[in-house]
Write a structure and sequence with these properties.
By secondary structure, the chain is of the alpha/beta class. Helix content is about 55%, strand content about 15%. Keywords: ATP-binding, Kinase, Nucleotide biosynthesis, Nucleotide-binding, Transferase.
């Protein structure tokens, strides 16, 4: 299988992690697969992730921090893996920045676009699986699963803005995005993902 860059997006509690693991196992039968995440994926980026999730900061600092982590991640993990013909599955990428910092925080989208160009040098995912879920359902799932980080502590209105941010990104790049109805059962969500992969011959 030739290299593919597949990202998993959605608000906290949408169930991405479960399906990244299963898709990694499925694609590993076809070739080498790298499973990674953002913020994170390298020692430096994981350190920045800790600050990002648990330290108070203003929205611009937050935005710059996540793009700094992304640059290191691209240089040290994503680009080398793709160049070697591997498939990369990534839990969040730049769409999350547009959704959380752009939609949720209200940051200027032109600033995000500039950072996207500088940091990524044209690199975009081949496929983005958007796990779409109402904010109130996601909140119920998070409450039952884990202690909230500083993002997960945000109110429903914040997450509705984030969801709208994802919807805007999907509308702008329909050839790249595949909307997954994350309100369904694990088996039904997995079937949606499989259908998307089959449509692309993957």
């Amino acid at each position: 299988m030739s290299s593919r860059f597949i990202t998993f997006e959605g608000i906290d509690g949408a169930g991405k992690s479960t399906h990244i693991a299963s898709l990694t196992a499925r694609l590993a039968a076809q070739g080498e697969v790298v499973s990674t995440r953002e913020p994170g994926g390298t020692p430096l980026a994981e350190t920045l992730r800790g600050l990002f999730l648990h330290s108070g900061m203003d929205p611009l600092t937050e935005l710059l921090l996540v793009f700094a982590a992304r640059r290191d991640h691209l240089q040290k993990v994503i680009e080398p893996a793709l160049a070697a013909g591997k498939t990369v599955l990534c839990d969040r990428f730049t769409d999350a920045s547009f959704a959380y910092q752009g939609g949720g925080r209200g940051m200027d989208l032109a600033v995000l676009s500039t950072l996207e160009q500088w940091v990524q040098q044209g690199r975009q995912p081949d496929l983005t699986l958007w796990f779409d879920l109402p904010a109130e359902v996601a909140a119920q799932r998070r409450a039952a699963a884990r202690e909230a980080d500083r993002f997960e502590q945000q109110d429903l209105e914040f997450f509705e803005r984030v969801r709208a941010g994802y919807a805007a990104r999907a509308a702008a790049a329909p050839q790249r995005f595949a909307r997954i109805d994350a309100s369904l059962s694990v088996a039904e969500v997995a079937a949606q993902i499989l259908a998307v992969m089959e449509q692309r011959g993957w």
